[in-house]
């Protein structure tokens, strides 16, 4: 979008150190003895618009689309002493039906673990640097559940937290309705007590769908629920220790069971199975529209 801004510069035969817009308007209205020089400036204003660059609407049935998603698998605790085994190509833990991606955590023995779940990732398939991420989801409930919608740096090998983590949504079942947003990097992360995080209340997290979203550019990260921003983090423009977020990141979706945070109040086995339903995932990037 281009706009033309007309600036009227009034120059008097007398010398002025400066004058206000109000004075100029008054001078024009009074038609006093001034010499008018009219300068026309055309300033280009480029409107930033969001363009959809990637999505999964889950309008199919079966396993998640293998051209878009991969499985992170294993039962080694994932750095947080989690209790689940993440499986692959197992519809009991990850499937698409009735227009939704379903990630399901189950109480069952599997590969020497007592719980199963799924962790889907776009790593190696799609990554993005800057953009808007929207995930419309309904979360699981119950003590011991720990669902997350998040991003990691796509560099290999990944050094955590040096290469960055963005948590668009985390929820721990022992604190129902408290939805968390956070970033992690070498300068700011929980293990050294410098974490950057925020909490918002979503009372019906387990019975209704909400849009968990992030807007990310070279200067800042903003995280919101249903369009309401509750977390922001700004680029200090110092070094990678404080801002590793100028590189490609990939998206992850999962339900963890237990763990250092999710399991602080134990695990209630009576709640299982538990599901996270995802209606869509949409990724936008900014384009200049004339």
Write up this protein.
The structure is a single chain. With 290 residues, the protein is mainly beta. The protein has two domains: 3-43, no CATH class; 48-289, Sandwich (Jelly Rolls). The chain is 3% helix and 47% strand. The protein contains one helix and 19 strands. Strands 3, 5, 6, 7, 8, 10, 15, 16, 17 and 19 form a ten-stranded mixed β-sheet that branches. Strands 4-9-18-11-12-13-14 form a seven-stranded antiparallel β-sheet, with no helix packed on it. The longest helix has 10 residues, at 21-30. It starts with a strand and ends with a strand.
Major sheet attributes: 10 strands, mixed
Topology, number of strands: 19
What is the helix/strand order? EHEEEEEEEEEEEEEEEEEE
- Classify the helix fraction into a percent range: under 10%
Stretches where pLDDT is under 50 for at least 5 consecutive residues are 1-21, 27-43
> How much is the average pLDDT?
88
Strand content: over 45%
Rounded Rg = 26 Å
Distance between the termini: 4 Å
What's the quick description here?
The protein is mainly β and 290 residues long. It has one helix spanning 21-30; strands at residues 3-11, 35-43, 47-56, 70-71, 84-86, 94-97, 100-110, 113-117, 119-121, 131-138, 145-153, 165-170, 178-184, 196-201, 210-216, 220-225, 228-234, 249-257, 274-289.
Write the layout of secondary structure elements.
Blueprint: E1 3-11, H1 21-30, E2 35-43, E3 47-56, E4 70-71, E5 84-86, E6 94-97, E7 100-110, E8 113-117, E9 119-121, E10 131-138, E11 145-153, E12 165-170, E13 178-184, E14 196-201, E15 210-216, E16 220-225, E17 228-234, E18 249-257, E19 274-289
Parallel strand pairs: 5-8
Antiparallel strand pairs: 1-2, 3-19, 4-9, 6-7, 7-8, 7-19, 9-18, 10-15, 10-19, 11-12, 11-18, 12-13, 13-14, 15-16, 16-17
